[in-house]
Amino acid sequence: MPMYQVKPVSPGEIKIDLPTCMYKLPNIHAQGTSRGEHAFQNGEVDPAVKVLEAQQDDILKKLYELKATVDGLTKTVTTPDADLDATTLSQGVSATVSKGTADLDSLLGKDLGALRDIVINANPSNPPLSLLVLHSLLCQRYRVLSTVHVHSSVTSVPPTLLSCLGPRHADSYTRHRFELGFTLIWKDVSKLQMKFNTQNMCPIEGEANVARFLYRLLGAEPQDPVLATQMDSWIDTAVFQLAEGSSKEQAAVLRSLNGALGRSPWLLGQEFSLADIVSACCVLQASDSTLAPANVQRWLKSCQNLGHFNCAYELLH
Amino acid sequence: MTKENVQGASEEEPQGQSKKGLKKQQKEAEKAAKKAEKQAKLAADQQEADEDDFAKDRYGVCPMVQSRQKLDRALVRVQDLTPEKAEQQIWVRARIHTSRAKGKQCFLVLRHQQFTVQALIAVGDHASKQMVKFAANLTKESIIDVEAVVKKVDQKIESCSQQDVELHVERIFVISQSEPRLPLQLEDAVRPEGDGDEEGRATVNQDTRLDNRVIDLRTTTSQAIFRLQSGVCQLFRDTLINKGFVEIQTPKIISAASEGGANVFTVSYFKTSAYLAQSPQLYKQMCICADFDKVFCVGPVFRAEDSNTHRHLTEFVGLDIEMAFNYHYHEVVDSITDTMVQIFKGLHDRFQTEIQTVNKQYPSEPFKFLEPTLRLEYKEGVAMLKAAGVEMGDEDDLSTPNEKLLGRLVKEKYDTDFYVLDKYPLAVRPFYTMPDPNNPKYSNSYDMFMRGEEILSGAQRVHDAQLLTERAMHHGIDLEKIKAYIDSFRYGAPPHAGGGIGLERVTMLYLGLHNIRQTSMFPRDPKRLTP
């Protein structure tokens, strides 16, 4: 029977927002169910999430370590050894291994399966004797294909210059059997020039510089920086003061050569080096070798006895 | 019509002549008077002219030279007009290159082949006004005989080839007149390309030149080019004869296409058809099998290639060499390269004037080469290209841009415009190429390049009939068609190799020109059959 019904004054279910600023006491009466919730309220984290966070921290640490290592490497690569203390280096003669192996790939670039040809343009009026000596040394170490050409800018060249690299190798028709090519072109150039890889290397000018490059191919460069500097110093003296200097300068150089050779058989000490090659060639070209001081003459004789100087002596006559 | 009206008007008013009528009459009278004056003056001038022409017999148009009389007159060439002949009175036959009249003087530039000289006709003892006028009106390119005194000049005449002398003309006669309108102007034809565009002066189009080849060939540049080409041919012959070669002539009408068969011209031969020879290959080799040892031949080569490029012609002159060798085909390569070097040296020594003349219109770098010639292996060439960033396989053929790039790289490293590339891959060579004994993927073949463009393709030939048959089958060639060729190797054939160059291409590349039609006198290409 439709009765008069009174509308409910208050809704049945009232949601109560419990305050979060207070902490809850565990329910003494109930057991177990509310513990997880309680723990969350206190700021502690779920163990699974803890593990994930730990992993993330690990990875970040590793990344930072890697970044530090790379930074360190870039620093060592870009800045020179300015803090290398020269006084701590060993004084005296360190054994320069004359039979050291030179890594041709690192010096000349990747081997692309074809002959690596070094081209040297020289003026026939000024033959580079030291390069001929180095050529002879290179032939001992590697299979070298040597060729001599005359450029159209030069009308004629004496036959001694055409055969200065020695007789033609029997296998010279198969270029790819050789490791290194040594192509000498007699050309009307003002300064001696060497070209190898025109895409990546600029040409090297000057007999002394080309000699240094070729010497490096022999793997005989002195590792000791003091010796290396001395070698460079002798080379520069020979090229600038002996070959191009006035007679006074030449005499001075001969005197200092004499002094140095009085103390040791070779300029750098006990080992034959590029300094001896370049200096000897300059002495032979500059003046009459019979007028040189005693030690210098003895030293020239020793050079000749090594056998590599024959090609140079042939051109002097 | 107006006169009639006027007359009508005056008739209408017969009595008093109106002002108009009077004025008209006066004007007419004035006109008539002026006309009479002019005519009188002309008549007077004419009389004067006729009276003053004391030099009448010193100039004129000669009757056509029909060998009516044999004059024992020595004509001096323009080339030989030097200060040594000063004050001598000589006869010269040349063409009129240009003429310029200035009042009482007329300057002519006379030209013979590559040489030009200035000539002067001035009113004076020897020449009258009429003579100067006659000289000024002569058409360009006419051939004239001139008697003159050679005079030294103080200031060099820069525009002529004979810069130190000038001719003072005393007699001038026309031997062969030219039509006044020329299809092209020679000064335009000799002008360098760049100049024309800048100053607004014309240069001549190549097609116009080729259509009017007779006139174009008269220019100093063309004369120089073809004299140099003649030199190439002569040096080729001389060098080879000195090396003991024999010159042979091979047939050009052949029954079977020698190289592949794709690009041959067919001719009707009585009841059948025949082909025009693509190269003397077949016959050169037959001569070697016939014990001639070293042969060469100079003759036309016909290639029906539909290529319209700057370096292809359908007919060109081929200089071919074939040589038997003892043990290694490099003997032949050395011989060929030595011949080329002798040609270059000969051109450099004997044809400097021609090279300079061509350089005036077409500037280029002088040709450089090494002696002995640089010989690189194909692998080295590929390595150089790879180092420069080109991607190609070890056995791919060189495309034209790659060839040009390799030429530039070799020029940079070795400073030579001429080199040989040896040991090409076998797959890209014709079937008669001998394979490399050590590596079956390569062959004993070589190409020679000038300024980065190929001029010679050669190889050691297969001289064994069986191997030849195998190679032909491998290339899918019909053995019936080349039966005669294979047969020639069955009765003892020496090992041999050779190659051929194109005369026009070598001339073009030596001079650094850019289109082969400039070095072919009457070029033939897919679009041109005349002149």
TrEMBL record, chain A:
Domain of life: Eukaryota
Main location per the UniProt record: cytoplasm
Domain annotation AIMP2 thioredoxin-like: ranges: 114-205
GO cellular component: aminoacyl-tRNA synthetase multienzyme complex; cytosol; nucleus
Keywords assigned by UniProt, alphabetized: Apoptosis, Cytoplasm, Developmental protein, Differentiation, Nucleus, Phosphoprotein, Protein biosynthesis, Ubl conjugation
Annotated Glutathione S-transferase C-terminal domain residues: 243-303
Ranges for domain AIMP2 lysyl-tRNA synthetase binding: 1-45
SUPFAM superfamilies membership: GST C-terminal domain-like
Transmembrane segments: none
Subcellular location: Cytoplasm, Cytosol; Nucleus
Keyword RNA-binding appears in the UniProt entry: no
Gene3D superfamilies found in the cross-reference section: 1.20.1050.130
Annotated function: Required for assembly and stability of the aminoacyl-tRNA synthase complex. Mediates ubiquitination and degradation of FUBP1, a transcriptional activator of MYC, leading to MYC down-regulation which is required for aveolar type II cell differentiation. Blocks MDM2-mediated ubiquitination and degradation of p53/TP53. Functions as a proapoptotic factor.
Assembly: Part of the multisynthetase complex (MSC), a multisubunit complex that groups tRNA ligases for Arg (RARS1), Asp (DARS1), Gln (QARS1), Ile (IARS1), Leu (LARS1), Lys (KARS1), Met (MARS1) the bifunctional ligase for Glu and Pro (EPRS1) and the auxiliary subunits AIMP1/p43, AIMP2/p38 and EEF1E1/p18. Interacts (via N-terminus) with KARS1. Interacts with EPRS1. Forms a linear complex that contains MARS1, EEF1E1, EPRS1 and AIMP2 that is at the core of the multisubunit complex. Binds FUBP1 (via C-terminus).
UniProt protein name: Aminoacyl tRNA synthase complex-interacting multifunctional protein 2
Organism from which the protein derives: Triplophysa rosa (Cave loach)
TrEMBL record, chain B:
Biased composition (Basic and acidic residues): 25-40
Pfam families assigned to the protein according to its UniProt record, in alphabetical order: tRNA-synt_2, tRNA_anti-codon
One GO term of the biological process aspect: aspartyl-tRNA aminoacylation
EC number: 6.1.1.12
Stated family: Belongs to the class-II aminoacyl-tRNA synthetase family. Type 2 subfamily.
PANTHER family: ASPARTATE--TRNA LIGASE, CYTOPLASMIC, ASPARTYL-TRNA SYNTHETASE
Subunit structure as annotated in this protein's UniProt entry: Homodimer. Part of a multisubunit complex that groups tRNA ligases for Arg (RARS1), Asp (DARS1), Gln (QARS1), Ile (IARS1), Leu (LARS1), Lys (KARS1), Met (MARS1) the bifunctional ligase for Glu and Pro (EPRS1) and the auxiliary subunits AIMP1/p43, AIMP2/p38 and EEF1E1/p18.
Protein's name according to its UniProt entry: Aspartate--tRNA ligase, cytoplasmic
Organism: Triplophysa rosa
